[in-house]
Amino acid sequence: MKSALKSGLLALAAAALPAAAYAHPAIGEAAGFSHGFAHPISGLDHVLAMVMVGVFAFQLGGRATWLVPTTFVLVMALGGFLGATGVNIPFVETGIALSVVVLGAIVALNVKAPLAATLGVIGLFAIFHGHAHGAEMPENAAGAAYAAGFMIATALLHAAGLTLGYLIGRAGERQGLFVTRTAGGIAAISGVGILAGLI
């Protein structure tokens, strides 16, 4: 079980490492991609929500394993477009914090929702996350490159969550469920802290 947890933490670290490589100043396409890539992994709220999406997808299994993360990334791109073009969506930051609470709670409680309902909830949260990414695009950034950056970073965080779910599952059904629920609970509590402005 310790080995599985260590591997899970290494997977999360590996997903975050490329941000350091893109943190240097750049212009045009490079600036767009580097800023876009760094944005999802620069905030605890985004990281927690994206990893929980991956863990949740793993818990659901079957088609949800790829449909849930794919839906999130695609709908998030729409949200990013709305944010970049100045379309106002109310309560974006609240929606992002709530996504951490809800997704963490879903993982902690091992919720098995119907796929259609799951994709609806995932899509709603993706709009908020995408809007935040798009609204904070630097003026000197190339839009398509910026979008590619935040979409790839998000997909990597989802992959880290899927990997984490898999590795925890290998620890055994009983221990794995406990660790997964604990991770979800910690994420949900962190989301409450973010929502309250304490984190």
Automatic annotation (TrEMBL):
<dbReference type="Pfam" id="PF04955">
    <property type="entry name" value="HupE_UreJ"/>
</dbReference>
<dbReference type="InterPro" id="IPR007038">
    <property type="entry name" value="HupE_UreJ"/>
</dbReference>
<keyword id="KW-0812">Transmembrane</keyword>
<feature type="transmembrane region" description="Helical">
    <location>
        <begin position="144"/>
        <end position="166"/>
    </location>
</feature>
<feature type="transmembrane region" description="Helical">
    <location>
        <begin position="178"/>
        <end position="198"/>
    </location>
</feature>
<feature type="transmembrane region" description="Helical">
    <location>
        <begin position="89"/>
        <end position="108"/>
    </location>
</feature>
<keyword id="KW-1133">Transmembrane helix</keyword>
<feature type="signal peptide">
    <location>
        <begin position="1"/>
        <end position="23"/>
    </location>
</feature>
<feature type="transmembrane region" description="Helical">
    <location>
        <begin position="115"/>
        <end position="132"/>
    </location>
</feature>
<feature type="transmembrane region" description="Helical">
    <location>
        <begin position="65"/>
        <end position="83"/>
    </location>
</feature>
<keyword id="KW-0732">Signal</keyword>
<keyword id="KW-0472">Membrane</keyword>
<feature type="transmembrane region" description="Helical">
    <location>
        <begin position="39"/>
        <end position="58"/>
    </location>
</feature>
<protein>
    <submittedName>
        <fullName>Urease accessory protein</fullName>
    </submittedName>
</protein>
